[in-house]
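Sanity check record (used in CI):
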Amino acid sequence: MVNYPLLARQLQDGFYGLPATPAELEDHLFGMQAVTYSTVAALFFLIYDVAITFDDEVKYIWPISWGATKIDFFFIRYFPILFLISIQFYGTPRFTYSNHDCYIWNTYQALATILIIAAVDYILLLRVFALYPGNRRIKYLTWSLYFAELITASVGLGLGVPHLRYDQFCGVFYAPTTFFIAAGVPIVFQVYLFVITTCKFIRAVKSGWGTIPILKIIMRDSTWAFTLLFLILVTEAFLYTMAKDAYIGILFGWLNAAFSFCGYRILININRVGRIRRDATRTEDFTDGDIEFTTRVSTNPPESLGG
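Expected output for DUF6533 domain-containing protein:
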C-alpha cells in the first residue's frame, strides 16, 4: 500500500515548484495515481476490443494484399497497446527518475502520439479521397491540411516538452500553453474531415444514392469517430490549460486508445461491407488507396454529386 504522507515528504524535500503543504503534496500523489489508473484502463480497453474483433481482423483484413493501408492497420491496432504498456512504469511512486530521464520519457510519448495520430488520420483522409475520386482540389487541400496538422502539432509538442515540470516520479505538474496548440490543431482537422464527408453524404442522399451500403457505413463511422475524437481532444486541451497539478495527463492514455480504436474499427467496418457486397453480387473488386471497396459503379454516386 502506498504511504502517501511519506511520499509527500519525499517530494517536498526533493523538488521545487510543487505545492508547499503536505496536504497539497498528497493531493498531487492522488492525481498521479488517477493518471496511472486511467492509463491502465485505456490499455485494457484496447486489449479487450482487439480480442473481440480479432475474428473480423482475420476475415476482413488478412486476405487483403499487403500495402500501405494494411501496414497502417496493424500499426494503429497494435503499436498503441505496446506504447501504453511501455509507459506504465513512469509516473508511479515505485520508480524514481532524474529530470533528464523524465524529459526523455515525455519526448518519447510525444513522438509516439504524433505517429499514432498521423497513422489514423491517413486512414481518414483516404476515405475522403474515395468519396471524391478525381477531385484534385479536395485531394490537395486535404493533404495540405494533413501535413499542416502534423507539423503544427509536432512544433507545439517540441516547444512544450522542454518546459514541462515533473516530480521525481516523472509526474507532470505543469504544462505550457503550447500543448493547447498541439491538441487544438487535430481538432480543426477532424472538423474539416467530418464536414466534407457530411456534405458528400447529403448530396448523395438528395441524388438518391444515400442507401448505398458503403456510403452509409462511411457516414455512420464518420459521425461516431468524429464525436469521440472531438470530445477527447477538446477535453485533453482543456486539461492541459485548466487541470490541477498531476491531473493534467489523466486522459493521455485514452487519447491514444481512442485514435487507435477509431482507426482500426473504421478499416474493419469498411472492408466488412465490401466483403459482404462482393459475396452477394459477385462483382469485381477494386482498390482505392489500398482500401478495398465494391465496384465503382455500386459505391460511387454519379458525377452530379460533385465527385
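The domain at 27-305 is CATH 1.20.1070 (Rhopdopsin 7-helix transmembrane proteins). If this sentence no longer matches the regenerated C-alpha cells, the check is flagged for review.
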